[in-house]
């Protein structure tokens, strides 16, 4: 059952929904939103991501968050993954070259990784991304994460 918390963004009071992969409807909507937002970004190019949504195996064990409009449209989504080892991170191969810089940090497990943050273009600039960051950091603390990494494009 999704958990809903009411939060205040820059322009409105919104409901942030926390859910898992068991909520197929919300997960599907979040995956489709990823494709819409990423395909619209100029540096990515158009139609690289499938229009039926973008997913990876980490969706199955992640904690997901979404913000919907009153009509139910998902306008923002994000994901929090919890890992014991850095080699288990999503996109590990992309950050592997950073390992020498990360080693001195001595990241302690569990390690939270915030990623897959998307906001529908006409809803950007309203504080929704920041709000999703805040709730993901709160959740990471709640579940006992000792270290955090943020995946940014």
List keywords for this structure.
six-stranded mixed sheet, 153 residues, alpha+beta, 27% strand
Describe this structure in words.
The chain has helices at about 25-40, 90-95, 100, 130-140; strands spanning about 5-10, 15-20, 65-70, 75-85, 110-120, 145-150. With about 150 residues, the protein is of the alpha+beta class. A six-stranded mixed β-sheet has the order 1-2-3-4-5-6, sandwiched between helices. The protein is globular, with a radius of gyration of 15 Å.
First and last CA, distance: 31 Å
Query: If you average the pLDDT, what whole number results?
Result: 85
Q: Helical element count?
A: 4
> How many strands, which pairing sense, and closed or not: the largest β-sheet?
6 strands, mixed
| Count of strand segments | 6
Give the class from helix and strand content and strand pairing. Answer: alpha+beta
Question: Strand order, biggest sheet?
Answer: 1-2-3-4-5-6
What general form does the structure show?
A: globular
Beta-strand residue percentage: 25-35%
Helix content: 25-40%
Low-pLDDT stretches are none
The radius of gyration over CA amounts to 15 Å
Q: Helix-strand pattern, N to C? A: EEHEEHHEHE
